[in-house]
Amino acid sequence: MNKSQHPARWGIFQIEHIYTCIEKTAQVMQVFSMQIIGIWLNQHAVKRFTYLFFLGTILSVVITACSGSYSAAEPEIKLRLVSFSVTKAAHDQIIPKFVEKWQKEHNQKVIFEQSYGGSVAQAADVIAGKQEADIVHLALPLDVIRIQQAGLIKSSWQIRTPRNGIVSRSVAAIVTREGNPRGIKTWADIAQNDVKLIAANPQTSGIGIWELLAFWGSVTQNGGDEATALKYITKVYQNTAALTKDAREASDLFFQQAQGDVLITYENEVILAEKTALKLPYIIPEINISIDNPVAVVDKNVDKHKTRKVAEAFVDFLYSSEAQREFAKLQYRPVNPTVTQEVASQYLPIQTLFTAQDLGGWDMIKTKFLENGAIFDQVKANSKA
């Protein structure tokens, strides 16, 4: 973490780090204090000195452990990044720039171990310990909140990073077949009887949740009531033959295997498809959702791996103009104000841009839409009827 750039976050980190060290020291003292006191009272001066030396050695080990979590003494250090499926193209450009910068400044080589997949599933793997991520860059804040609630990330994660932890943004795009034979122009058109939709599963992927919220908000943020919204999304999911596990699989089905009439995906994903000569017409709806992608250091894992310093430096680097320009090249909407101004003209304007907060915030969204028996389960049941 850069102290001069983020003094408030640096202060929070220092307090947390001191508290952790105090905890470690207290644990050691608790184990040995009673034993040493008893021995002290029954031994002569030479043996007393020996036990004091032994205690001092133990405390030195504790202090070393405290400082080791952000030590950069090794010639190489491994950093584990777990992210959602469509960010790989951006990280392939950003990571080498960071590695070069860190090598130059610290004379240490950073080796990245990377994993990409559906955001919900990735978060579940981190929680289960199947992937010991040092850093997570996920599709939606709810996935980071889940990891936090599991005790792996401290509750201050949004305070410790700029923009409340949001490092990249996008909006929803509706992709159609050449010539748009179904005449899809708005969200409402997707509910037509003859439309076949390719959509992702909200239970395994971030794009699946963003799609669900975009469908719902296209009604409620445009003057419609919740009964109308429920009827609409039920019809939409009836038009879905199967739900894919993540955004990449949905794109492959639509672009590579030519399945479906309509695909809902990230705006940046459409541009990536265009770069591979799979250019198809798409619409950026005037009523749209701000798709906010968070990043966070996984506190428990960086302390275990002794990678906190380099992990926090990489997170800071993701907000730099250099990294944000790489996100922008792939049509992510940057969060760095300088880069936002530089590239503003390359994005289509959004008339009504709503957020997760407009739908009640992530706690309400989880309860209302995603838990067992909530709206999505009801929609699935009705779609099969």
Short description:
The chain has 385 residues and is an alpha/beta fold. Helices cover 51% and strands 16% of the residues. It starts with 6 loop residues before the first helix and ends with a helix.
Please supply descriptive tags for the structure shown above.
15 helices, 51% helix, alpha/beta, five-stranded mixed sheet, D-Maltodextrin-Binding Protein, domain 2, 16% strand
Descriptive overview:
There is one protein chain. The chain has a five-stranded mixed β-sheet. A five-stranded mixed β-sheet has the order 7-6-8-5-9. Helix 4 (119-128) packs parallel to helix 5, helix 6 (206-220) crosses helix 7 (226-238) and helix 7 (226-238) packs across helix 15 (375-384). 51% of the residues lie in helices and 16% in strands. The chain is built from 15 helices and twelve strands. Helix 3 (88-106) links the parallel strand 1 (76-84) and strand 2 (109-117). The protein has 385 residues and is of the alpha/beta class. The protein has helices at residues 7-42, 45-68, 88-106, 119-128, 141-149, 206-220, 226-238, 247-256, 267-275, 299-305, 308-318, 321-329, 337-343, 362-370, 375-384, and strands spanning 76-84, 109-117, 135-137, 166-170, 172-176, 197-200, 240-244, 262-266, 282-283, 287-289, 291-297, 352-354. The protein folds into three domains: 7-68; 76-168 and 293-345, D-Maltodextrin-Binding Protein, domain 2; 172-289 and 355-384, 3-Layer(aba) Sandwich (D-Maltodextrin-Binding Protein, domain 2). Mean pLDDT is 85; it is low at 61-65 and 67-72.
